[in-house]
Amino acid sequence: MTHWAVQYIGEPWVAGEHDCWAFARRVWREQFGQDVPAVDVDACNKLACVRAFTGHEERSNWYHVEKPQEGDAVLLSQSKHPSHVGVWIDADGGGVLHCLEGSGVVFQNVSAMRAAGWHGMEFYKKCTS
Hints:
Blueprint: H1 20-32, H2 46-55, E1 62-65, E2 73-77, E3 84-89, E4 95-100, E5 104-109, H3 110-115, E6 119-126
Antiparallel strand pairs: 1-6, 2-3, 2-6, 3-4, 4-5
């Protein structure tokens, strides 16, 4: 893949510093000029992540889209509710750039995401003022 996202691949996952939300915030700021607030959550606690993604006030600043475009948020789940976030990338047929515990930053197409147990992908675009 020849894309700006390549520079991030392989960076480590660090709880509270470089977890999925912190990484997505960084990408939105650096690549899309969007400031997104931090969400204070224990990234090692799946239930806390689920609650953060479903109930945090920041969610009201995003709207659901059916077809993602470069830079859109991707909420992911391995159970009933989303507990992980990534950034949609249009390269190589499209996929998710995200930061995983144990793997760090990876890019996966939709087939690889499903094979890894991720499902229920929901796509969101940030509201602009």
